[in-house]
Design a protein that fits this description.
- InterPro entries: DUSAM_dom.
- This protein is mainly alpha-helical.
- The chain has one domain.
- It is built from 6 helices and no strands.
- Helix 2 runs parallel beside helix 4.
- The radius of gyration is 17 Å and the shape is elongated.
- The two termini are about 30 Å apart.
Length: about 120
């Protein structure tokens, strides 16, 4: 995936507007945003397409996509900080375990990739 494909600002913006009370409308733009970002956060394309059959289910999909981006980012940040803290305390095994734990639970491919790269770096070092 290129950097433009991974720009999640549009889904965050749409989610923020809906959370602030703006009515969700299934437009060509919102449909395209959800079709692009759903699979990027680990939602199968077939499930995305099913959700896009109605406005209510599309709004629910938007909520789930935004939640996965936000929660996954928070989990990854905490895990990377904890792994770094443990590594700096000479607990490399503990750092590895933190990264293995996030890999066990994380569904967003980008966040999994980041954690995997960090784990591989620890294994090499």
């Amino acid at each position: 995936m290129n950097e433009q494909e991974l720009n999640w600002d549009d889904v965050r913006d749409l989610s923020r507007r809906v959370s602030a009370g703006e009515a969700f409308t299934l437009t060509a733009e919102s449909r395209a945003i959800l079709q692009r970002t759903g699979p990027q956060v680990g939602i199968p394309a077939a499930d995305v397409e099913r959700a896009l059959q109605g406005e209510a289910s599309a709004a629910t999909l938007l909520t789930e996509v935004a939640r996965r981006i936000r929660d996954g980012s928070n989990r990854l940040s905490r895990a990377l900080s904890e792994a770094t803290r443990r590594q700096e305390a000479s607990d490399v095994d503990g750092a590895r375990q933190v990264l293995r734990d996030i890999l066990k639970d994380e569904v967003v491919p980008l966040y999994r990739d980041i954690a995997q790269v960090q784990l591989e770096a620890l294994d090499e070092g």
